[in-house]
Design a protein that fits this description.
The protein has about 375 residues and is α/β, with parallel strands linked by helices. It has 10 helices and 15 strands. α4 crosses α5 and α5 crosses α6. Bound molecules: adenosine-5'-triphosphate and magnesium ion. The site of adenosine-5'-triphosphate has 16 residues, from α1.
Length: about 375
């Protein structure tokens, strides 16, 4: 798939932007705080209906404006298609259009413009806290599987309600009457998440291992392992079994949850680890090893998307190349000889040989 053009009105610091793109590499160059990441955010949002940086849609509406309008023409699934989102500064729900027809949810746009974002924080994702790894995994899985996206939203909703019950029951003891209902539902939906994640991390790990192998010249064996709730002995087990495993864990933490007022059980604390030839990367990996492994992981994510949709997803490299030494830059660039790529960087002239350069200053093309 390929992004042909983009129109933004009142999105972030863009009052009005009309741009068309190259099928290969598009370089977005500009000083700090000019709107480079904002541009990538708009592309990624059009593709997934999610922002990688905003917590609320209103953040993306230009300061002082009532709404933001984003539109793109995309070549996907053998034809030209149009995507459009309108976001409001107030509480009004966003509007979603595909080829001019209004859609209820972003899931109905799924597969038209899949993107993979790679930014400098991702380079250290295997070293930092579990939350960043979960975010990375969840984003990738939501893009691949709209049903996972729906299950995750549902899980978080139930978790929120359960957490509120546990927090407030000291003051309102009758709340505990409905707790069992929430526990059961949380385990059922949680089991579904584990089932998706087990398969996803298995494929991701295998694909990443191949990149890492090429990257390190076969010197290190990359292995990714998915970690979930301790009572789950086989995350590939049928969902019914997984539900039972989660219920068991829940039951053994019931008292502790009531006493602490906190939710202590469920796959919202899942994680994954990477070992290189058996050595845990998080604890022992060097900076170079960590970066190399993270690059392999990102390229793997791109590959899984390409397999799923039958076309290369659009790759968004936000400031990541300038962070890397020549060898690692070359490795990435050599792996992405096909498909469309957007690369942001601050230094003009740095990567100009790669493709078309778009220069941005204060939300305008110069
Ligand atoms: P860097 O090189 O530092 O990463 P960048 O070019 O990627 O910079 P962006 O993050 O794209 O910069 O843009 C940041 C600018 O956009 C900031 O100056 C910020 O104030 C502005 N901005 C963010 N949200 C909005 C908004 N809703 N309305 C207007 N301006 C906004
Ligand atoms: Mg930026």
């Amino acid at each position: 798939m390929r992004l042909l053009d983009l129109q933004l009105r009142n999105f972030r610091n863009y009052e009005e932007l009309n741009l068309s793109f190259e099928p290969g590499v598009n370089l977005i160059v500009g000083n700090n705080a000019q709107g480079k990441t904002n541009l990538l955010e708009s592309i990624s949002y059009l593709g997934s209906g999610k922002s990688f940086r905003a917590l609320k849609q209103a953040e993306m509406v230009r300061f002082g404006a009532d709404f933001a309008d984003m539109e793109a023409n995309v070549f996907a699934q053998g034809r030209q298609q149009q995507l459009r989102y309108v976001l409001f500064s107030g509480s009004r729900p966003r509007q979603i259009y595909r080829n001019g027809a209004k859609k209820k949810s972003a899931a109905e746009l799924s597969g038209v413009l899949p993107t993979v974002l790679f930014c400098p924080e991702d380079l250290m994702v295997l070293k930092t806290g579990a939350a960043a790894r979960r975010r990375l995994g969840d984003h990738a899985l939501c893009d691949l599987r709209p049903n996972y996206d729906a299950a995750l939203t549902e899980y978080n909703r139930i978790l929120d309600q359960k957490s509120r019950i546990l927090k407030d029951h000291f003051e309102y003891p009758h709340l505990l009457e409905v707790l069992p209902e929430y526990n059961t539902r949380l385990c059922q939906v949680g089991a579904l998440l584990i089932s998706y994640r087990a398969r996803f991390y298995d494929s991701l790990g295998k694909a990443a291992a191949q990149y890492h192998d090429r990257f390190s010249g076969g010197a290190e064996e990359f292995r990714l392992q998915y970690k979930t709730v301790s009572t789950v002995s086989d995350p590939f087990a049928p969902v019914q079994q997984l539900t039972q495993d989660l219920l068991d864990h829940q039951a053994s933490h019931h008292r502790a949850e009531i006493e602490s007022g906190q939710c202590l059980t469920g796959p919202h604390k899942d994680d994954f680890t990477v070992t290189l030839s058996g050595i845990d990367l998080k604890a022992y990996g060097s900076q170079g090893q960590t970066r190399t492994a993270a690059i392999s992981l990102k390229l793997a994510q791109r590959e899984l998307m390409a397999r799923e949709w039958g076309e290369e997803p659009v790759l968004l490299l936000d400031d990541v190349l300038s962070e890397l030494d020549q060898g690692r830059q070359d490795f990435i660039l050599n792996q992405i000889t096909s498909g469309q790529v957007f690369i942001t960087c601050c230094e003009p002239g740095r990567f100009t040989k790669l493709g078309k350069t778009i220069e941005i200053e204060k939300g305008k093309i110069i």
